[in-house]
Specification:
This protein has 16 helices and 32 strands. By secondary structure, the chain is α/β, with parallel strands linked by helices. Helix 4 packs parallel to helix 5 and helix 7 runs parallel beside helix 8. Strands 13-14-15-17-16 form a five-stranded mixed β-barrel. It has a five-stranded antiparallel beta sheet with strand order 20-19-18-21-22. Strands 23-24-25-27-26 form a five-stranded mixed beta barrel. Strand 4, helix 3 and strand 5 form a beta-alpha-beta unit. The protein starts with a strand and ends in a 5-residue tail after the last helix. Among the domains are: 92 residues, Rossmann fold, CATH 3.40.50; 92 residues, 3-Layer(aba) Sandwich (Cobalt-precorrin-4 Transmethylase, domain 1), CATH 3.40.1010; 68 residues, OB fold (Dihydrolipoamide Acetyltransferase, E2P) (Beta Barrel), CATH 2.40.50; 69 residues, OB fold (Dihydrolipoamide Acetyltransferase, E2P), CATH 2.40.50; 74 residues, OB fold (Dihydrolipoamide Acetyltransferase, E2P); 78 residues, OB fold (Dihydrolipoamide Acetyltransferase, E2P) (Beta Barrel).
Amino acid sequence: MRIIIADHAGFCFGVKRAIDMAENNACGGRLITLGPLIHNRQETNRLGALGIRTCDGAKLPKPNGDEDTVIIRSHGVGPQVIKRLNEENWRIIDATCPYVARVQSLAQKAFQEDRQVIILGNKEHPEVKAIKEWTDNTAIVVASVKDLQDTKLTDRVTVLAQTTEKEKRFEEIVAFLREKVPKVEVFNTICKATKERQEAAAKLAGQVDVMIIVGGRHSSNTNKLWEICREKNPNSFLVEIPEEMDQVWFKDKYTVGMTAGASTPAWIIKEVVERMQDYADLQKENTVQTEEVNEEVREELREEEIVEEEESITEEANEQVGEEAVDETQKLQAEEDREEERQDISDIEEQLDFRNFQAGEIVNGTVVKVSSDEVLVDIGGKSEGIIPAGELSYRRVDPQEFVSVGQEISVEIVKESKEGNIILSHKLAMLGETLNMLEKAFENKEIIEASVIEVVKGGLLVDVGIRGFMPASQVDRKYVEDLSQFVGQKLRMKVLELDREKKKAVLSQKVVLEEEYQQKAEEIWDEIKEGETRKGIVRRLAGFGAFVDIGGIDGLLHISEMSWQRIETPSEVLNEGDEVEVLIIKVDREKKKLSLSLKELLKSPWDNALEKLSSGMVVPGKVKRLASFGAFIEVEPGVEGLAHISQLSVNRVNKVEDVLQAGQEVDVKILDIDPVKKRISLSLKDVATDKENAAMKSYLDHQEDKDSGVTIGDILRENNGEL
């Protein structure tokens, strides 16, 4: 019995893509699919074992956190569902088949253009329901021309089809509409892979004795395959698992064909083929046993014949020779049969395992074409392999930026595509190499570079060939409030933890930065000297001063060293982040302490004061501080003089507060300047005495001129009431 596999059997691109996306995200929080990810109970159970739950949209629970994820299956959903998921803050992975997404877009556009939308398909199918929702549920769903007979049609109609529909039905619908409607917009949205699968199955069904269709009974495309095959061959049977096959189907049959729906995984197809091969082997065994029984009967008849002894001896001799010849012939025939079986199995494996390649095999290839959504690679087979964009890396990348034509690239064989090409994965091929690299980096404490993919709860996701996690506490030496600033950046980091089995890595940039900081700090401590001038960054302000980073170590700039003038808080002079030039005034290497000065690099206000001031001058001043023995009065910025209590008034002063207040502006006379001790003696009393003397002199001068008419009152007014 010869087994022939139809072209394009098994997973389609959209289903495989959805399953890959689910498996790649099966970690962290809950992973829930809106409805079965695939119409195959066995595969759904396998995914369930990985922790991937299936949930009806109406029963979807609320997310517990940022890691809880919903996968939109390849059938897609309507806009209201997407809106609801966003409002509930679900993390969404959209695995809608690109072909289905195109149908949704066309339906929405037609609705927005006020066209009547007609969809050929099963109105209960989730794909069709989702497409209809993109038309605000106004689209008309039909299963055949009959459903259109009583439908009221407008003058402008757009007709679409469920991606798994039959080509013949769609052509009938289009022909009917073109007779009835003036303006018909036609989009044949039947998936090319579906069409090719159906054509290949129909062709094979007409050439074999028995046709087996493998797939879920709830799968639309699988049931359509069965219908098509039954039209060509009445001996067509639909099975979900190998155990559903009946050995009677294959009795006395020479050729058996097999195809599989788009939701049928390769492992089920292989199990079905192996079961059919067992039936074939059993048939051969029964044939051999029957031949042995016939030979025994013939031998008994020969023994019953009455013949001459000589003839009997001769006959026995001849029979012996004949038996030996028969035995030899049977051996040769058996060997030929075994060789044919091996060839049959080889042919089947070639179809299932993609010609000369095995699923999971890693090979090297050359990039021959790059588009926005896939990369074509020559791997030396009979056809080019395809890397979907999502299989290039564990993060979203632009294929045209990620690879270039002529580039050598490692890939893993995944499956056969809808066009007969081989679906490849670069990210899977690099997985083993990536884990080895991470393990080596972990053991040797090496620094690696990787880009930040996104911000998640508690930290960052980093592309290190797998999705690495960097906790927020390991991003920088200091606390970082906004982690989004790192998205897209390439960071240097070390591996803190690695779990090869779970393909998880915990990473840290902080470790790298801390080590570099310490190394640089040691270098600076070795070379820094007192009296040097260095540039630094103000890192932190405190009540007593500021901490300044001078290239790897922090020094203290005390508030008393910030300005020649007296200040109350450091913020009067500096802000965090300011770049300043400071003088190293003290280095304590043992205690790792550094004292800095800002004012020492500024010109002393005393130098300016000595150039401007001299004894005997009357200058304006501002009272800064009061003491029991006098008042400190600023006469130049940063320069204060002392007015002793005895110099405050011509009258006796018991308390300084009785005469002056802090902040008061007064005129003072400079009695003495000591440039060495930086001291200035001031007097308010002498200023008053000088004014009195000036007033008296003015009065006497006026008295000498008796005709002047100047009175004592005039003089008082000129001198502010003072004599």
